[in-house]
Each structure stands twice: as C-alpha cells, then as structure tokens.
Amino acid sequence: MSLKTKYALSTILFIAVLVADQIIKVCVKTGMYLGERIEITSWFQLVFVENNGMAFGWELYGGKLFLTLFRILAVCFIGWFIHKEIRRGRPMGYIVCLTLVMAGAAGNIIDCLFYGLIFNNPPYPLVAEFVPWDMGYGELLYGRVVDMFYFPLVEWDMPEWVPVYGGEHCVFFSPVFNFADAAISCGIVALILFYHKILNEYSAKTETTTTEETENTTAS
Hints:
By secondary structure, this protein is an alpha+beta fold. Helix content is 55%, strand content 13%. The chain has one domain. It has helices at 3-31, 63-87, 92-118, 179-194, 196-219; strands at 37-41, 44-51, 145-150, 154-157, 169-172, 176-177. Strands 1-2-3-6 form a 4-stranded antiparallel sheet. Strands 4-5 form a two-stranded antiparallel sheet.
C-alpha cells in the first residue's frame, strides 16, 4: 500500500469517527434532558450525563483547563507520530489503531472547546438548545463532555458479610461513555493485542537509551 493511500485512509477514518461522535452527542444533548435514561435492553441503556474528566468520566488532577490543553497536545503528538509511522512503512492496521485513538481524543476536545459556547444549560426536564455564539453555559475550553452509552452487563448485591462493601448494589460494567471513548479504547486494545511487537520495539529502545545514559553518568 502506498504512502498516499495510507494518508488518505487515515484521514477518512479520522473524519468519519469525528463526525459520527459529534452527531451522536448533538442528538443526545438536544433530544434528552440531563440524567434521562432510555432502556434499549436490560444490558444496554442510553443515559445522558456530562463530565469534566477523562474517558469514561474519570477525573484528572489539575483542573479542567489543564485537561483540555493536555488533550490538545496529545492529539497533536499522536498526529505527528502517525505521520512518522506512515513514513516508516508501518502496517495499515497499526495506523488505523493510532488514528482511532487520535480521533477519539479529538472528539472529546470538541466538547471541551465549543459546547460551553453554543449550548445552554436548561433546568430539568428541558433539553439543551443551540444558542448564539458565546451565549452558552461556559467559556472556551470549559465545555463538558457528553456521555451516553451504558452497559450494565452484570448486576448483583454484595453479601452483607463482605467488609466495607457489604450490602451494596454492584454493576459491571458501570461507566457511562461515548463514541469517542469507544474509539480510544478499541484502538488501544487492538494495539496491545495485535501490534505488541511494535510497541515492544519502543519499550526496548527506551530501556536501551536509559541504560546508556545511566552508564555515561556513572562514567563521568
């Protein structure tokens, strides 16, 4: 496969994931009120939540501004890395995995950058609407990420005799996530499963560089 074809496929995949992610988020945000739950099956539900954190609603130490800027830098780095790996002739499947991670991260960046500027924040049970630019609920870089997919695959009640968590209702899998999160996760899992040899190359290079630096420091 030529370099030109790899660049084209990577670009198309990036745009497709980005567009699909934003369509889903806008439909949920303008069609459901915050906290609304729609049960598709017993193990698959749509739950409209928003978060300031990382994928699956996890929080990151350092605040919202740091998180958004970190995401932007991460996407820029991954884009540069993909360009480098294409030039090195890496397999297209490997490039696809990297592109999924980059597209997913970029999808959540759009929420952070613009959603606070273009959406209002209505009270329950009203749904959000588009508003004139800069008339939304937040500022640039301070938008909230929209999540909606919830898969309570297994639920059980913890026995009373269990320390600390006794009697609590437990759910697997409990995080609510979005299409961008899914793209990131699929890309990372596929990298680990199918391209671990390439990842090990970088790990080996890092260890070698660290060892050489240590030896040079000791010799000095």
